[in-house]
Amino acid sequence: MKLSVIGCGYLGAVHASAMAELGHDVIGIDVDAAKIGRLAEGQAPFFEPGLSEVLTSAMKSGRLRFSTDMADVAGAQVHFIAVGTPQKPGSHAADLRFVDAAITALLPHLSVGDLVVGKSTVPVGTAARLAEVIAASGTGASLAWNPEFLREGFAVKDTISPDRLVYGVPSGEAGKHAQALLNQVYATAIAAETPLVVTDYATAELVKVSANAFLATKISFINAMAEIAEVSGADVTQLADAIGFDSRIGRRFLNAGVGFGGGCLPKDIRAFTARAEELGRGESVAFLKEVDAINLRRRQRVVDLTVSALGARAYGRKVAVLGLSFKPHSDDVRDSPALDVAVQLHGLGAEVVATDPQAIDNSRARHPQLTYAVGIEETLRGADAVVLVTEWPEFRAIDPAWAASIVRTPTVIDGRNTLDATAWRAAGWTYHGLGRP
Ligand code: UDX
Fold first, then answer.
1. Residue 257 and residue 351 in one domain
2. For residue 259, how far is its CA from the centre of ligand 1 (angstroms)?
3. Are 164 and 290 in a shared domain?
């Protein structure tokens, strides 16, 4: 099929490349000329495992092109909207200006029978509003909402083999037409019997935000238990293992630590709260404010533990920060707890030296005041405290005896509860976990 993908960020670049890999003919559009320039040369504009490979192979096949000119969508029958919906400055609501701009720019290029497919995460009610805009344009095109559940770090795999497909479609013939086209787009996943939910716009929009709200709640739940463990002497990691054996609960997303970040969970729960308030049902999701508050307290807890490990004086002390990205296998530092901790410690006068396998450039662009080191040894040398805030495999693999010989004081704050506490203590370290004695 001939497809267009409007917006080539984390979501769109991966979607465009994966769709071409699956055999479709794809044009990726973005207003950012630098980004399109890199993509057109077959270079991934950000770090995402496997993206460079699919991008290169799709470009070679001739099935994938990139452009800044919306007119180049001509010939495509299905147009994916994959632009960002960030948090509005000064508000918790989602900023829909990029979605609106994409639709406005796309309208003149739509033909009868074309399908516009929203993938961006939007407040419930957005699709119905956009469907009216498209209907009023008289182009004969229609709209479907097809939320994306990809996880950064696994984005290519999640796009090629999703764990479910959700189509929000209009009723009647238009809905059947939309479903038929989407089934063609996702023919490979459909053939693999991927679960499919065909529903209305509002449900499709809510599936996405409620999934993220659930995941955020699960993480904040275990982090709340960590807070209780801290005042009662319990160990939250053992508690998570024990409750996780209950298959109704499950062990995944029960890792207590410095909390969640990234471009989705934090802003999505805030936008959900703002939208529910607009709809007069703020109380239904008021608990998400608590989820957010618990999450933000965990960053403060890591900072407080570090300062107390330094004898209540951070000023002038060298703190080695391991990790900057919001999670491993990503260079994304949007709302990253790791970067936030580094910045807070710097603000308290500590001499912060931070490292990350992928996220140094993005961190430096936002926080040039921090000192960044490439390599673990340089980061650790002479440190008065070591703070692990992103659980990259290379940090987990650090030999505690070797590390103890490099730092000034062998004190580690494990903000992800990911190190082997027994082994680190045996190597002479004072080990502090989160929610662990
Ligand atoms: C998330 C959703 O998982 C995905 O379905 C959606 O499409 C986009 O948002 P992503 O932001 O890539 O994906 O990251 P995810 O793997 O969900 O992790 C989110 C954050 O939670 C990370 O900062 C991670 O470190 C943290 N986390 C995760 C925990 O603190 N504890 C856990 O047990 C799991």
1. yes
2. 9
3. no
Q: Are residues 155 and 205 in the same domain?
A: no
> Is residue 215 lining ligand 1, measured as CB closer than 6 Å?
yes
pLDDT at 201: 98
pLDDT at residue 262, as a whole number: 97
Q: Which residue has the tokens 């990234």?
A: 262
Do 176 and 217 reside in the same domain of the chain?
A: no
Neighbouring C-beta atoms of residue 147, cutoff 10 Å? 22
Give, for ligand 1, the residue of 164, 208, 215, 241 to mutate: max count of ligand atoms closer than 8 Å to Cβ: 215
Q: Is there a single domain that holds both residue 37 and residue 170?
A: yes
User: Same domain, yes or no, for 113 and 206?
Assistant: no
Query: Could you give the CA distance from residue 71 to residue 57 in angstroms, rounded to a whole number?
Result: 25
Contacts of 56 (CB under 8 A, 6+ apart): 42
Predicted confidence (pLDDT) per residue in 294-317, tens digit = 999 999 999 999 999 999 999 999
| Cβ of 266 less than 6 Å from ligand 1 | no
Per-residue pLDDT at 366? 98
Nearest to 352 by CA among 327, 389, 396: 389
- Report the catalytic residues: 264
